[in-house]
UniProtKB/TrEMBL annotation:
<dbReference type="InterPro" id="IPR009050">
    <property type="entry name" value="Globin-like_sf"/>
</dbReference>
<dbReference type="Pfam" id="PF11563">
    <property type="entry name" value="Protoglobin"/>
</dbReference>
<dbReference type="InterPro" id="IPR044398">
    <property type="entry name" value="Globin-sensor_dom"/>
</dbReference>
<dbReference type="GO" id="GO:0019825">
    <property type="term" value="F:oxygen binding"/>
</dbReference>
<dbReference type="InterPro" id="IPR012292">
    <property type="entry name" value="Globin/Proto"/>
</dbReference>
<dbReference type="GO" id="GO:0020037">
    <property type="term" value="F:heme binding"/>
</dbReference>
<keyword id="KW-0732">Signal</keyword>
<feature type="domain" description="Globin-sensor">
    <location>
        <begin position="43"/>
        <end position="216"/>
    </location>
</feature>
<feature type="signal peptide">
    <location>
        <begin position="1"/>
        <end position="19"/>
    </location>
</feature>
<dbReference type="InterPro" id="IPR012102">
    <property type="entry name" value="Protoglobin"/>
</dbReference>
<protein>
    <submittedName>
        <fullName>Protogloblin ApPgb</fullName>
    </submittedName>
</protein>
């Protein structure tokens, strides 16, 4: 863990411990905004995807339970996640400035603020049209269609598709210890963790739409 945090510190993105839950007036955060394009997948498509993943009401309840546990831990969670990215050259390259060849601290910081909100949004997702539209927008921002545009960054043209589903594992594996920090039972921690695995993979699948040929999603 120390190695990961030191790596994150080298990028200048480790936040102070004990930070308050993130604010929602964050540049580039657009959940619920009318300016977002309508997602090309429907509510019926989402329902079918959830059924195929065995994602149901129990998972929604477990995610809701996790929000109270994670809300004041978002910065600590991000320290771990950013440390993992910083120590993984295959990932940190997507946060680099192609002009200098070095990680872009401003871009990392801007994304981090939205990432903190993503933790809370995953825990209390509404799974309505506004949520679907935001998932599509997030996918576009990883793809060459909109990568770098939100923050005026000069990074690689896109995050390669294979890393979207792959990151489900480190994200959810490293989240589990945080779910256990507030006295929840072992059974509840397992339920919350299982729900998070499904929820993160579900989002990664939705984000993948811009990468897939028309008619094949």
């Amino acid at each position: 863990m120390l190695k990961l945090l030191l790596a994150a510190t080298s990028l200048g993105v480790v936040a102070d411990a004990g930070a308050a839950p993130p604010r929602r007036d964050v540049p580039g955060y657009a959940l619920g905004q009318a300016t977002l394009a309508r997602a090309p997948y429907s509510m019926a498509d989402l329902t079918a995807l959830q059924k195929s993943m065995l994602f149901g009401a129990d998972d929604v309840a477990a995610l809701r339970q996790s929000k109270a546990i994670l809300a004041d831990q978002t910065e600590a969670i991000l320290d771990v996640w950013y440390g993992f990215v910083a120590s993984t050259p295959e990932l940190v390259v997507f946060f680099g400035d192609t002009r200098s060849g070095q990680p872009d601290a401003n871009y990392l910081g801007a994304v981090r603020k939205r990432f903190a909100l993503w933790i809370l949004d995953t825990a209390d997702a509404t799974y309505d049209q506004a949520w679907l539209d935001w998932q599509y927008e997030i996918g576009l921002r990883h793809n060459r269609l909109k990568k770098n545009k939100t923050d005026g960054a000069h990074g690689p043209a896109q995050v390669d598709f294979r890393y979207l589903p792959a990151l489900t594992i480190p994200i959810t594996t490293t989240l589990k210890p945080f779910l256990a920090k507030k006295g929840a039972s072992v059974a509840d921690v397992e339920r919350m963790h299982a729900a998070w695995v499904k929820a993160v993979l579900m989002q990664a699948i939705l984000w993948s739409h811009p990468y897939i040929k028309d008619g094949e999603f």
